[in-house]
Amino acid sequence: MTSSTKVLDGGWGWAIVAASFMAQLLAYGSPQSVGVLYPEWLHTYQESKGMTAWVGSLVAGVGLIASPICSACVDNFGARPVTIFSGVMVAGGLMLSAFAPNVQFLIFSYGIVVGLGCGLVYAATLTITCQYFDKRRGLALGIVTTGTSVGAFIYATAQNELIVLYGLDGCLLIIGAIALNLMACSGFMRPLNMPGYYLKQKAALERNTEEQLFVKPPFDDLKIAAGSATTTPEKPLTVKELLITIDVKDLSIQTEKKEGHLTGLAIVKAIKKKQKAYSKYMRSLYEILQDQEMVAFCIAIFLFSLGAFPPVLFVEDVAQSEGLIEEVSVIPLVSIGAIATCTGKLALGILVDIKWINGIYLYAFTMLAAGLVLLLIPITKSYVGLQILTAILGFFSGNWSLTSYITTKIVGLDRLTQAHGILMFFGGFGIMLGPPVVGWFFDWTQSYDLAFYFSGSCVLVGAFILFLLSLPCWNRRPSENDKPEVQYTSTCDKVASVA
């Protein structure tokens, strides 16, 4: 641990921040500006708006819903291999989309493949950044996560120009080729700690590389393995490495004492230990969902994602359908919303650090403002007005930067991993449902008015629920989690799945 703490908050860590920023820009640039591609897909495949909207909803929602799996991959294999693999997935999915014969294939290639690749990039970049920063972790994560907004701003204009010059297929091929630079970004992600997969391999090699797992090892080898886990003075073991080594040693001792069919009892005992750990994890999730504020926050996240995400996908088509503009402008509405979201993330992050500002009420206020903006979009009859509303909505959509802070305030740092995973599931589910629902409303009424009234109402209802259930008049049991300040630790295991 002493060697790790020396490199925190500076040095190579800033190279990690730059590489992670570029990785998020390259991965999320096209998915976050998918609104530019949406009208082209409608014209090319002649499918309904509801069906075509699944492409944009899946590419944003799949990565959030699969965030626990993505975080587990990073924890076991490390940020560098995961980023390399995600580069193959994002680039491959974009290039496959150029040859999509129909929307159904596009849902798989762009929605699922690219979406999972983006989820892996997000988990890897946040995890490696957390490993290299302690006191400046908030600043580092803020810089890294703005890569998605900057990428959306750049890619919205770039994709628009590429479509004009090379067509939709050529645009996707070029964007996919650029995404291969994710592999170059992974080269900077030098790990501080050995990932879990390599620790298991190391422990197995130390025990005996030539024998099977349940073959009785020589007693001398057992003594060496035991000594390597407890008495090696040169290199102190980390907690994860020590646990893995102890597990392997304990299993070896059990298989030495038991002969024949009795060896199966050791296997059963090991399985029961794993089942006990999983049941404890599920019990912890159940206890988290017993918190009234946490339940209200989950509902608010779901309703906000359901209502506020569709404009990212539909805003360009809204302008063209209403006759406000004939084609996508030089600076698309998606770019305006993206740069406003980047500004909102930074501004709201600064505001929530002020002691007299309640993070939950601040989030509820952003939902209230976003809901009102969504209700104003149908009655706006000018392109300039639509640009202004898009910028305001983008600014308040930057409230995603508050989720980790509020979650820590509600459940504490010890349960941050599980609680944030639950929140991301609700958020991803809302993002997946929102665009298809809005598309179905248009297919039904041939107008976006009712769809945006529905979206705005969902966001306003979520703000009301969050504000009402978080009032201090409710008799909540006192908890030591309600602290005025959050003390972050330098261990990355507790924040690895925040992605």
From TrEMBL:
Q: Which SUPFAM superfamilies does the UniProt entry name for this protein? A: MFS general substrate transporter
Report the subcellular localization. Membrane
PROSITE patterns registered for this protein in UniProt: MFS (PS50850)
Which residue ranges run through the membrane?
12-31, 51-70, 82-100, 106-126, 138-157, 163-184, 294-315, 330-348, 360-380, 386-407, 419-438, 450-471
Which UniProt keyword terms apply here?
Answer: Membrane, Transmembrane, Transmembrane helix
Instruction: Return the GO cellular component terms, semicolon-separated.
Output: membrane
Per its UniProt record, what InterPro entries does this chain match? MFS (IPR011701), MFS_dom (IPR020846), MFS_trans_sf (IPR036259), Proton-linked_MCT (IPR050327)
Per its UniProt entry, which superkingdom is the organism in? Answer: Eukaryota
Write down what this protein is called.
Answer: Major facilitator superfamily (MFS) profile domain-containing protein
From which source organism is this entry? Gambusia affinis (Western mosquitofish)
